[in-house]
């Protein structure tokens, strides 16, 4: 007789056997996720014995990214699993979930900063390390990666995603999922990924968190869907539904988005979890009169697991009894959840080893430093003021973030300890031990006095970690109060000024650029922000990061992004809407998408395509030669863009379709090859159908989105 406890049977067989043994009450129990806050421990134990809970979220409030959280630890995790396995009727384990956004013990750059590295292999490795450290803590599920395309830096949660471009975000999505999950979820070093927030949350109106969102089906499919499609294709075990609305319909209650597109068209086989209290919030959004109706709408739409609401446990029994919810839909949801638990091996060994390492491994910190170095972006370097001299000059390292620690870690940091964090000052002192470093970071007058005594000034500016993340939106993306005044005062001293900016979002830097000889965007890059920035400042590392999001000149330009549509009155060939300039400023950004400087220079030549005419099912090959024309070895991120010149529906003037990070010695050249297949040449057209239309296409290659090096080809019928 087949038995779900037999680990030699397939996941599907075990799942079906267990499902056949479950009561309605036990099935509904698998749809409920509760909080792991300490005050709920007794109730959680009772629910575990009765089989009325499926999962815990390792947070005590909705603002886990910016608040200290009190949650249960090792002993409680093991106790609950023992109760669930050995004292409940069927022995179904719990599945804890945690927001491991950019590291667990070892903290890496924030996701937006990770995207600035344009290196999916590094994103994958960071997720692998985060998975190992999370699994050792006893948690096998993360609410990451966040895949919301974001074009408004006022929105605090822009820090959690990979930027403004669908293609770049899709590459990072796949890498992150593969890193978290590995080859098999049964590997106890791996954890289940959760692609969130499906879908459109990044459109939050005015950059206000939780605000209304809206867009056409055309925009939804072509801009916001690709990262989720990539995550599903990479095998993401779970997806979190967003609570924003699309076309007047909250996603939590959208059968079209959750069942028809996600589970139908994309073929998603895992389970969908709601966001925090999102089912109850259908009442707030005005589409449900009460909790029972909210439960019906969300469950019928395709939300399989209820995060914290208890709407399902309270009302699904009656909804099934009334025939409004079918037993087939109930079984489908439970099946999806159980299969993930079986795949994770939780039925066979759900316990955490209390003796597992809880230290930060040296090799993880070494990787974190390399990753941070790759992600930092040099925005200006006038007269080659950088790299800084390692001796012979007095250098002041000052500013509100010069000796900061916690701020460098960024939002959504689960490791609240200062262990292993070096400040920017400490990084500078370690990178240039023979340099005379003068420091000050608190009082305004002391900082100016330090700058006065020095020959050069490194001014460390930016935001705290609490000014970024969920529910941390700002109306004006200028530097925080007082920082520009400090920069102006330092500039008046007549010394060379290098501004280092530590932040999780794009900031308005027009005056910073004007008053600084060099600008390094160091982001909130985690544990190794200080050492990585110092290595770049002194030339031990050549900067190579490039922007994954457009930096505006003023807050009033928002939203501004490179892949905009052509204007009706004038086609703007420069890819930012110069033709719609404001009276009081240009329409051009401060720094464009894909932009970043190096201590060396690169030249592009020999752009060619294999065929001048292809059919829709053929692959176009693009070749370009890149040469290091400077005196220092370095990395270049070679970018390939495409323009569909004539289409049934409007298309962006440029779209990223490929990129490669290459390393070149001085004087060396490399041919870089890109392939444009059907998926890259096509788009979702009329009726939401994917198509590749005949006509002329322009293909561009270069070091950022403003490249003008191009050639053309034609797709014929």
List the main descriptive attributes of the protein structure presented here.
six-stranded mixed beta sheet; 717 residues; five-stranded mixed beta sheet; alpha/beta; 30% helix; 25 strands; 22 helices
Written overview of the protein:
There is one protein chain. This protein has 717 residues and is of the alpha/beta class. Helices cover 30% and strands 18% of the residues. The protein has 22 helices and 25 strands. The strands form seven sheets. Strands 10-15-14-13-11-12 form a six-stranded mixed β-sheet, with helices on both faces. A five-stranded mixed β-sheet has the order 17-25-24-19-20. Strands 3-2-1-9 form a four-stranded parallel β-sheet. The longest helix has 18 residues.
Unreliable runs: none
- Count of DSSP helices? 22
Structural class: alpha/beta
* Main sheet record: 6 strands, mixed
**Number of DSSP E strands:** 25
- Numbering strands along the chain, what is their spatial order in the largest sheet? 10-15-14-13-11-12
First-last Cα distance: 58 Å
The fraction of residues assigned to DSSP E strands is: 15-25%
Overall pLDDT metric:
94
Q: Percent range for helical residues?
A: 25-40%
Shape: globular
Radius of gyration: 26 Å
